[in-house]
## 1
Amino acid sequence: MDEFKPNAEAVLVSEGKVKYVGSFEVAKELASEAEIIDYGDNYVYPGFIETHAHGFLAANRLELQADLSQDKSMDAFLNTMRKYIEEHPGRDLYEGAGWDIYDKIPTRQLLDTVNDEIPICLNSIDGHSMWLNTPGCAKFGIDEEAVKKYGTDLVRVDEDGVPTGYISEEPVINILLNNKPPKEGTKAGLLKWQELAFSQGLTATGEALADKEIVPIYAESVEEGEFKLRTYGMFTVNNNAEDMVKEVETALEFKKYDSKYYKTVAIKLFLDGVVEAHTGWMEEEYADAPGYYGDKRFTDLDKYVTIVKTANENGLFVHVHSIGDGATKFGMDGFSKAQLETGIFNLRNSFAHLQYIRPEDIKRMVDYNVCGAIAPLWIPKSDSAFIQECEYLGEEKALEGYPMQSFIKEGVVVGFHSDYPVSTEISVPLSIYMAVTGKTPKDDYDMVRNPNECISQKDAVLALTKNAAYMLNAEDEIGSLEIGKIANMVIYDKDFLNDDIEEIAKSKLIATIIEGDVVFKA
């Protein structure tokens, strides 16, 4: 992915960095006694980069939670939890993740049939909703006061005004951030997350839900010498804080934990929720709820501008969760005002997800150097979320979701993300395949949401390498195989730039290399 030297035969590594890229003969002459690793007719790439993931949540998912992501009905979710509790007796809280709405709306009474004595807390597949049993509601304060505080759009209630156990957005994030599992369990989970990432060809990721408790755990894991997955932390701040400058100052305090493998690089904000939870912030009212525009999680523009200016002036970019076109319009209003006042345009402020966006805001992203983290794994018409999007927004609007080519055509720097474990799958070949085709390999063509938004193979690979590094302010270290950069590489058995796209979907990872050392081998 070096435009001046796009192809080569050999990479020479010394002290963890690239010393030479070019012909095999010259590499041999430069280091006649070097160890030679010959991957034959396979293909070496720069280590792939995930711009927006949740390593902390992944750690807990892999170590401490039941996986519901393969189930396709409420009865299946309940059965999985029954089995999980039987296999893990003695806990004072049971957690799971990955449920979606298929055939029934989740209620605490349904979950009480699994266990009505021990709290159960289940995260939805998109990470923006939660399903609690009655003891879980009691444990986390989902009661009449919560209804008053958050409203019935976020804390659903029955006909008597009693919480049903189905909650979304702010109360969910508060539970996730305040319900930390034992540190040793999380550290063990982080190593599993690293193992998974390496096994998928990822060598660097953004941590999109960092906070004052998570950052030290990363730091300890790095210090103990086993954690080498380069992680770029996005410190989550309180949207509703009175003092937004103090929020940034708190994030800056945690830069003392920066290391070779973990750095706090950004402030993370939420502007809205997700359409399938009825909480994405749209410009036009919801089709099923006249007068309702979604969950506007940050509506004070002056506060938004203050936090962007303060972060940028202190060397942090701002990374924003934005699903609806209303949220992105508000975000661009704030980014443009802040950047005009500071004159700082090189910190790569960014939006994550960008399911819906107005064409004029795409142009504004280019003008103000705002990057886009998008998820090709979410593009096809799914058998659950897309149906809800049609119900909530109308089919015409739903079909506009997740543009990609529109960003690239205008000149937005686009990086890919899976949002794992919000996405239940993490795959470089599938990300490329779905960005190029708009569907999964198993889908028929009619599952393509918008064929005009499919992109080229080269743009897809750039989104996983050089563009992603640029977005994380790390292009001087990673993202391409160039002299002086960190020797992170992955080897696949397919040519992602030139092979037939159907073959790319079948590609296999051969090895992952960190600083010249093989950390995963098929």
## 2
Amino acid sequence: MERKIYLDNRPLEEALEKYMGRLEELGVFSSLPAEEVPVEESLGRITAQGVFAARSVPHYHSAAMDGIAVRSESTYGASQIAPKELAMPAEAVFIDTGKRLPEGFDSVIRIEDVHFPREDAAEITAAAPPWQYVRTVGEDLVKGDLLLPTNHRIRPVDVGAMLAGGIEKVLVRRRPKVVVIPTGSDLALPRAELQPGEIPEFNSHILGLTLEEWGAKWIRWGIVPDDVDLLRAAVEKALEQGDVVLINAGSSAGSKDYTAHVIEELGEVLVHGVGIRPGKPVVLGAVRGAPVLGIPGYPVSAHLTLELFVRPILSRMMGQAPSVPEKVKARLARRVVSPLGMEEFVRVRLGEVKGQVVALPMGRGAGNVSSLVKADGLLRVPRLSQGLEADEEVEVELFCSRQQIEKTILVAGSHDLTLDIIADFLGRGWPDLRLASAHVGSTAGLAAIKRGQAHLAGCHLLDEETGEYNIPYLQRLLPDVPVALVNLAYRQQGIIIQPGNPKGIQGLEDLARPDIQFVNRQRGAGTRVLLDLKLKELGIDPRSISGYEREEFTHMAVAAAVANGVAHMGLGIYSAAKALGLDFIPLAKERYDLVVEQEFFQSELMERLLAILRSQDFQETVLELGGYDLSDCGRLLYSTV
């Protein structure tokens, strides 16, 4: 097969306009037939025509109150000074709410307004006008009234209204059938144990279940290896079953990327490559009058392109207006650099600090499925911009509710495994609260506190002159910012090495060896500060260390790099080494504290946080990780107020 590479960089709006226009020409948006379903099974479906009441509601005159049913003319003349007696049951009848009025009766008097001098008489002190406390026929709905318009998504209340109005079956649009074809010879069915080189195939579940959430029907396909003939056959067969076909992976221009070729061979490629990041290599095509799209393989790219290109198609097919996400204004916690000419979509965590919503940019790797789980919103960086500045006001498309943002504790600064445990304990005790952490390093965390963009900052900065942790940095970097310093833990910091120490590493002095590959933490991280101090003591030039410039943002990422053979050694905490079954050479016992913005320190949320830190269950859970000393956990060590 001759390779054909034609990745474009077409602007998003232009790509969408061209593609949707072509699908309109092909009749894609008018091809779905209607089907009749029982009303009880119609929740979430889209009406294919207007639904009109088959009967009035109520369909008989009924009492709106408990009391007595009367003929209004027989009550005239009754007053406080001249009560009137009505003979029962000839002139008055007991009636309960919702019961049908007896023939010839046209009004109801509340039971509390009636006196009974005898069993066969009711005494009233006020006349009852016609239809008092009566629900007349058709008061709610009249037979023939429009219940639901065409192209209406049916809600639970709509189901109830149709049943009340005598509707047993409703004509709805057939759910679009979307076939998701996962491709790749290295894919394997998700399971606990995978062989080296195998990639668990989970993307189809993300895509398919999202499609189901939008109202489509997901048809899951088996994994198709990297073979052009097998892919072609799969697409042809999928077109017999689905209204839309999504080919996941193989959309770029690599030697095993056959998606664009197959779509063009069977039909037409309208767009290959859109100026977005992530998601650039998306393929927008059509085969036999049906949309066939090549969705990039990385999960973040796949999810984003599904939202940008597939959701509008499904909305039009189902007669729905394009969805408009809820948005919120926020202050950007740190600068975002973006390439000119690409519209970039950045996932963010959100929280409210001092009445202002703050957006913390997350890792931008297209393969990080965890960022999809943790993200609270999406920030768009315009394609004609080279990025956004820290503290700039931005607009964020929400994945969560505004209330969740208000109930989020924002933590910036150094990474520690205990932060995830705190988040879990918050969820156990107070399900409405969340903890969102951005692992930006200790000094960047202090900067976030200074700018009012975080409630807490994890910090473990060792001062070279005094040998003291954190307090000298607060005095130097936050002299005018009211803060409190609460201890979280003392932890064992050291050298993480491969099991059995195959390289015979004895200490940091081995970093001078040319056969040792190192993995570092990012600039500003407390671990990086400690490393640089130790290198200075040993007289080792950082520039001579192989891997010094390779940076990771968490202790677990450092441990993973060592475990996977990317590096022979890295600096981190014992609990990270233990978690991945690695060996560890102790180097220092350090103090890890939480720097707390003073106003937040006095809040109810902080009280709950401190209650967790001081609880026995929390501390026992942390101690099981290994390498922690919690003798001062939850203790106030310093305050500037």
## 3
Amino acid sequence: QISNVGVDFIEEVSIKTANFSAEYGRNSGAAVNVVTRSGSNEYHGSAFLYHRNEGLDANNYFSNSRNVPRSDLKYNDFGGALGGPVIKDKLFFFAGVEWKQIDRFSNPSLQTLPTTAMRAGNFSHLTTPLKDPVTGQPFPGNIIPTNRITPDGVAFGNFYTAMSQIAQSYTDTPTASNALFQQENPFRWRQEMMRLDYNINTAHRLTARVMLDHYTLTDPYGTFIGGNLPTVPTDRNRPGWNLQMNHNWTISNNLLNEVKFNYSGNNQSIDPVGDVWKRSSYGFQFPQIYPDGGTYEDSIPFGSISGFAGWNSASMALISPTKDFALTETLTWLKGAHTVKAGVLGIYNTKKQNGRSQYAGNVNFNPSGNPKSTGNAFADALLGNFRSYSEAQLDPVGLFRFWQVEAFATDGWRVSPNFSVEVGLRYTYHYPTYPEGNNLTAFAPGTYDPAQAVTVNTNGTLVPGSGNRYNGLLRPGEVPDDQKADVPNADSPAVQSIPIADSRGIYEPQHLLMPRFSFAWSPGGDGKTSVRGGVGLYYDRPEGNLYFGLPNNPPFALSASYENGNLANPGGAAVPALAPWGSMQSVSTGFKIPRSWNWSMSLQRELPWWGLFGEIAYVGSDGSNLMRRPDINRPSFEDAEANA
């Protein structure tokens, strides 16, 4: 949804809760149509202001328990609209503008931070010995000597110190949930809307409308990034537009034609602000395996320390401008008791999005399974002894496209004055999303050759030269010449060695048929009772998130993953040592479009008391080929037990 239409700009809202007409497609579920206001032969205008503040808000329970006062709230929504004639009976206008300004705070969040003493290496409060991983003996008094704390260990201490200082409240004791966070979360939005209606003559009417949106949200945890700690505050800027043009033609008194063109989109970007996301703010010094991989190279890595609050990285910053074009033609024919509709729809969508890879690194500290552990995850962090570390080479960008053609025909037949049916069929030619630069790969289990499997050393690295690291991968096609400048590794031997899939969208285009049937019956003839029912088949187009991470896959973008090393040299003795790939995503070559059968039956009755209306309904659905992303690399419980 590009535009959230201002309330004062709306003429009517139509909601089809059971959209069994073949006229509606693209997705299952309710169909919502918002009709914007138009001008008339008289001038009409409005002005409005909605205001709300913290005066009527109760404080949050956790804030009360920490004696944190109620957070401020200033909500202002204001604007106005005006409509009227430009040329009487011929040309009309309607225009409006709305502002929304909200000064607010995020929801309170309780997190666990290490104490000041722990950040200095003092774990004397622990009842279990803290083991020195070098000698195997306990640290005297459970205190790590200062000269054993690495520069990156000092940086972890600086990081948690900074977090404790921006918390709403912090208790410097080794207890769980000792910090409360509630950060500023302001929002600014403005929309301008203009509509023109032109009556050419009694048979032809033109309508043009434009809406412009200006949208800025400051999120302390990062929009679409999140995390336990506010390490990636971002400004989400999403300027959007929606342009629509309609031509209504009354061909005869029983034949109508409507042509509609819509162009909408936004230039969304989500960028970090401030300094809390930077390595340099805390003094991190560890070398990256793949330097200069992305826009925010100075970002802290993703991090998790068992028992304490984890954090996210600015490598999740987003660019995702999108454009959507839709052309529709609908012909309506009235013939006796029949209302026949038929139409075609063409859609073309473009989206540019970065892969949001973990090019700044991802480090995890956990005593479990780590032979170099002290027995405490934060003590491991001070020494730099991680349980796992992974890093991506690049933050690649994909230029994604899809197009789709649909057609429908439906007949609404009034069989008798109190009984009508509608029968229709919708057709879709579904073409999968594809990258213009063909810069992604997908894993196809059917093409994997066990004879080409790589050999893994006991330390988690790979035996150089063993097997085929790209075994089982497919790519959409060759990188076009005009895209090679923007596609790293486009001509590399590794990329050229990957077989090309049968379809540019990885899975095959598909022809989809969707039958629809519904009826309405008013028994008794008094109009006080109605029985309605229907059934229909629907196909949902997969959203782009199924694809947007695939350019992160090798060999267009490499990655590495290591276990039980030291952060001073994440890749071991040779950086980067040959290691397994980091996480990968894929789309099945045999992917089938998710579909659902929906049906319902309802009884509605006007009741004899006080104008009441009663309804009882049965609604059902049955879905198949629903999307999921299983971890195909996870062993079964039986295999895991057999290899324990």
## 4
Amino acid sequence: MVNVKEGKGSIKSFLNITSIVAIFFSLFHLINVALKPFDVLQLRAIHLYFAVILGVLIYVHPKIFRISIILLATLTYGYVIYFGTELIYHLGFTSSFEIVFGVIAISILIYISWIKIAWVLPVIALVALGYTTFIGGLIPGLAGHGGYSITRTISLLYMSNEGVFGVPIGVSSRIVSIFVIFAAFIKLSGAGEAILHISMALAGGVRGGPGKIAVISSAFFGSMSGSAVANVAGTGSITIPLMKKTGFRSEFAAAVEAVASTGGQLMPPVMGAAAFIMSEVLGIPYLSIVVAAIVPSLLYYYAVFLMVDFEAAKTGLSGQPRSSLPDLWHTLLKEGHLLFSLVVLVYLLVGPKYSPGYAAFYSILVQIIMSFVKPVYGMNINKILEALETAGKMLIEVALACAVAGIVVGVLGMTGLGLKLSSLLIKLSGGSLFILLILTMLSAIILGMGLPTVAVYVVVAALIGPALIDFGLPPLAAHLFIFYYGILAVITPPVALASYAAAGIAGCSPNKAGWYAVKLGLAGFLLPYIFIYSPELLLKGDIVLIVIAIISALAGITLLACGISSYPIKSKVCQSFLILASVLMIIPGVMSDLAGIVLGSLAFYMPSLLAKFKLKNR
């Protein structure tokens, strides 16, 4: 955004074409939610067109190359926008120039995605295209197919809602876009700072207060932003220096912020873009996903909270002086109105059961109105335009990732490879669900090292999701399992994007921060296995069994935190006992719980027994 003179009540001049396009990108989605003037294919094509144009304006050089791509994108995406769903009705009569248009449109998409996102997803898409048109027809047996011509492949991927303009980009255009705009308004209205101030008032004065501030604020803000790295940059710029100032090691401070920011995508009510796609893919209400995610997300943050507390206790870190912290009630009276839109969002989703898109749209309006309750926070035209611009730029990566992932999903559907892979994976696992879950976890983590969560979820859900469901897992549990590891990849070395971003703020080694983050987030890596084998944690089943499962998981996570942090017990043997006891508590079943209780108790009492034994034998 260019710098211009700005007086009281004046409108900032947006002379930068990139800013103008970003603002119109966001406005387009607000208008669409309110009026719905476009058919399905038109909406998806306009959404992707804006993302491509913005990507070209920001990331492509030199200027003549940029202009050429914009003209070609306008021609090829404009064709789909103009005809819309009509194109689907003449897929069998595709003309040569339509195939040329499709090749150009897909090539531009892959090129911009390569620049903006990374090479991994575009390469997967290119391999999928090669498999469809060149390689698959030559492969014998289960892995091959009858062969598809370039004409048929491109027409299905470019002119229908089964490829580039498939379900992922559909969810991005209808729902994700509105929540991204909502997150931008939350940030620019001062609500993000309000969350931080309330967190400081709640936890700043207790043991390890700054670390706990990071956990609480990142949980709330991360749910809104849907991006771990963005959350690290937003809240971490305040919480990490604060943690270091009060005595936390740099690596630990970076890890706390990275793990807390990453968990924001697991935390209702928003949970990031992939959760909305999950709702569409599974054909279940978004609220069902939110309900299922409540207990696992709270357990995740309970584990991080414990680790911060134990680290503070070990190193003797107290909280900040109460005199330096905001008063809770004063903060709520002063800034609490800025969070009213979050209450409205939850009410609209749970009460009248509005669609997520409508709920977010009305919450944006409420956010703007509530900002004027106190003039100092009022969102004037400059702030509104800045929020729209910010949201437009944030949408680039999500839209591109969804469109390229749509190519992969489209190819799997066309060739039947998805169903074949399901059979192959079940054979590879030797009929063992546990081995299949490990393969799924590794696939999601490896892909997640170079891809946004939404792309990881879409690709892995398409490739391995059917195998998990064929094994007998409930579809929601299977997809949440994939969702979790796609998220946790951003704190998993060697390419731990959230940990790297936090390490940059903390001024420490990214590798050390990454491994500390794995240590802090270890409970998060175990939780998906827990709810697979104990579905009661997803609030499914008898209420008594649900309560027992939650208590058992809480006890297991507490023992795990004690064992990993070596607090309050420093004996290596006892720590090993605690970790083993935590695993036993986490495993469903009365006998395993009893064994965990016995082993955990033994670990706690062993140091005092050994001390008495040594004293007696002196």
